[in-house]
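One thing: mind reviewing this one?
=====
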Amino acid sequence: MSTYSIRRNRSTWLKYLDMKNVNLSPTMKSPLSCTFIAMLILIAGAMAPFALAYGLEGSSPNPATDSKIENSVVKIFATKRNPDPFKPWTKQAPQEVTGSGVVMEGKRILTNAHVVIYASQVSVQANQGSDKISATVEAIAPGIDLAVLKLEDETFFNNRPPLKRAHTLPEVKDTVMAYGFPVGGSSLSITKGIVSRIEFTRYNYPVSGLRIQIDAAINPGNSGGPAIVDGKMIGLTFSHLGKAQNIGYIIPCEEVEIFLQDIADGVYDGKPALFDELQTLENPALRTFLKLDKEVTGIVVHEPSDAGATYPLRKWDVITRIGDNIVDNQGMVRLNKNLRVHFRYFIQKISKKGRVSLTVVRGGKTLSVDVPVAVTSPLLIPSLNGAYPSFFVYGPLVFSKATLEYVGIFTSSASNVFAALSIAGSPLATRIGDTPAFDGEELVVVSSPSFPHKLVKGYSSLGGEVVWAINDTAIKNLKHLVEVLRDSKEDFIKIEFKRRFSETMIFPRKDMLNATEEILTDNGIRSQGSPDTLAVWNSKPSQETPHMN
């Protein structure tokens, strides 16, 4: 009997002896007691075959299963060129990143979107393999952070079958193993922990989904690797909480299945959701105000997502059921005796043809309503969502659309700048999270400090200013700004901004046009604008340019 076998079976036998009322208190320090304990350990090792025969052995690793799992985990290499919202005419320097992935059915690799988004080159390497196989991104969903890769050489899959996925959620406290290729080494890493928490929560706005929290160590490079319980994949590792210890997150297989069903037709549509503003029903005064019976539970509609007369939800409606599931006063629904999740979870479960059935209490009456759901909510300041920013260069100024990535420059690296924008009433701060006030509304920003040129002498360097009007024409969006500049016949261009204490800039129009090419050349900019803005600039002028009242 090896020392490993003795150690492995010690805990099983100590539990068995404890059931027989044998006192193995750690306070026993006499030589006789130590000898007695040592004898018991040796006996435990000697009795191991009998323990196996009679079911006394604890669960042990299955080498065959472990080998199959390890054979299905791959390392992903990507060369990424992320956008530079501050300099939208260029991209950030190439960045080499690594992640993990797992073999799935259809001779494909499943991984996280953030591993391969903006990647110009992707390759895959098998565990213990030496060759890197070129890959392309076949489908991607940045919102829920999932992607599918197709390999150039599909013989890679001949000896690598897909990993089996679990069809049910794990239980809290289940033992979980996280597989992947994190930093700190080049070979496959396996960390062990437990399932700590299961929630329905926000991923990347506006997408929400189920999320499993585990306490196994998760580090950069683990992203896209499988999390395993009882030999089956329960989800895909995707992040960890940076300012905490032992808090990692995985995307459960239920979310993976929704994603795979969505892309079956070759197009990713997105997850259905409700975008109404809600508030809990926990306050007694609020219940009294709404004249609710004591037995009524639910969540209150604070602001409907659509103010139109045909939209079925109204302000102060109390959502009491989604389908047949009772909603409590925190907006939660019980899945089982140990798990509650937000009621929005059931939208992805029961919605049909873009609608979901809700029960509401309105003015003391119980109503059944059929509410439309959508896969996205329009935002005035949206995410780039995998695209590169649009831009237009005019003289020494660069115009672009405001995006969450652009605003993130101010919030992450210079919070005092964002606070200053808020105090000054900049829409970048005051309207973040708003929906457009009209179809096509965008915030147009001077994305970066002006290029050095005599035309901007005496003016502030700008960067972060939101354009309000050009020659008294209110600017609706970036394309509209290009139209106004294109169609202008006046001698001067007057640019006004949406911020208190901002300057109004006056430029000679012909000088701005003449300086543009020179500025592009001096700064190594290959194009005056992105394809969408150049299409407007090079088109025929409109007959009339509307002016502000």
Observations:
- The longest helix spans residues 3-19.
- The CA atoms of residues 75 and 101 lie 6 Å apart.
- The domain at 391-537 is CATH 3.20.190.20 (N-terminal domain of MutM-like DNA repair proteins).
